[in-house]
Specification:
single chain, about 280 residues, alpha/beta, Rossmann fold, 2 domains, 7-stranded mixed beta sheet, 3-stranded antiparallel beta sheet, 10 helices, 10 strands, binds S-adenosylmethionine
Length: about 280
């Protein structure tokens, strides 16, 4: 069978059986992950994989983190947090209450990082963080806040590089090979299922982080997500994309002011939006 037909049947089958729509994901990288799965599970081709996915929901749950790429770490790309601390936090101090949305939070490291930063900046008590992902097992892990000692090593290194001003060990208790992050860091966090492909806006946010997620999306899907973020942001709200993603060349480029061009932090500008014809 023509490979592209097999690929399409696989995506159609996953969508029909589980409601996950991967048609808008960049084909090159998604197909590479599929090829990797075929090798790992010693399967002949995409149709073999589809058959197993359709017959075994547990198998599908097992491979989702691989298909959607769940790689993350505490204070990932520390420069992003430095820029956020220096350029956005001073403006947030004027707000009496703040909503944050971390879209594609994976296993939660980015959420704990933001909670720590907000605590240190004296903003945590007036903040609510919505942390969302499509991957249920990642969300469960995020709620637990228990990470391996290797994760904690990168936490210590990144935390300092991100401008952290306390001892990193204040934020967790070590337990043999694991570290349990303090439950107070999730007191103001709501973890929830949300699919950027199909779901709508659910809260007005002052800040949205969506890093290392849209690089896996095609341009059309990226445009849908920018539209969703634009609608979800309050006037003059902030969008943090990180160094790998950009608003450039998107129809929404002209609706935002650039706050930090390296870390790709933007601020919604409703006046610019009026000039946009989408
Ligand atoms: C590479 S991780 C990035 C995690 C974190 N934002 C970071 O930068 O370290 C990508 C995350 O996006 C999530 N994701 C992929 N497609 C998604 C979608 N359609 N809706 C919501 N989350 C999605 C994956 O499940 C995964 O947890």
């Amino acid at each position: 069978m023509n490979e592209s037909i097999a690929y399409k049947l696989l995506l159609d089958g996953i969508y029909q059986k589980y409601g996950y729509d991967f048609h808008g994901y960049a084909e090159g990288s998604f197909d590479r992950r599929i090829q990797q799965l075929l090798i790992t599970y010693r399967m002949k081709d995409e149709l073999d994989l589809l058959t197993r996915i359709l017959r075994e929901p547990d198998f599908f749950r097992e491979i989702i983190p691989f298909l959607t790429i769940s790689t993350t770490e505490m204070f990932r790309d520390p420069g992003f947090f430095v820029a956020f601390r220096e350029k956005v936090v001073p403006m947030l101090r004027t707000y009496p209450a703040l909503n944050f949305w971390i879209a594609g939070c994976s296993t939660g490291e980015e959420v704990y990082s933001l909670a720590i930063l907000l605590k240190e900046e004296g903003l945590y008590d007036r903040s609510l963080i919505y942390a969302t992902d499509i991957n249920h097992s990642s969300l469960e892990k995020a709620k637990e806040g228990i990470y391996s000692i290797e994760n904690v090593r990168s936490f210590t290194k990144n935390y300092t590089a991100a401008g952290g001003n306390a001892s990193p060990s204040e934020y967790y208790t070590a337990d043999y090979n694991f570290a349990r992050f303090r439950s107070s860091l999730r007191d103001n966090v709501i973890f929830s299922d949300h699919n950027l492909v199909t779901d709508e806006s659910f809260v007005e946010s002052h800040v949205i982080f969506c890093r290392n997620v849209m690089i896996y999306f095609k341009k059309e899907l990226q445009a849908r997500v920018f539209d969703l973020f634009y609608k979800s942001l309050s006037d003059r709200g902030f969008l943090g994309l990180g160094s790998k993603e950009t608003l450039r060349f998107s129809p929404y480029e002209s609706c935002f002011d650039v706050v930090d061009s390296t870390s790709r932090i933007y601020q919604k500008n409703p006046i610019l939006h009026q000039r946009l014809k989408i």
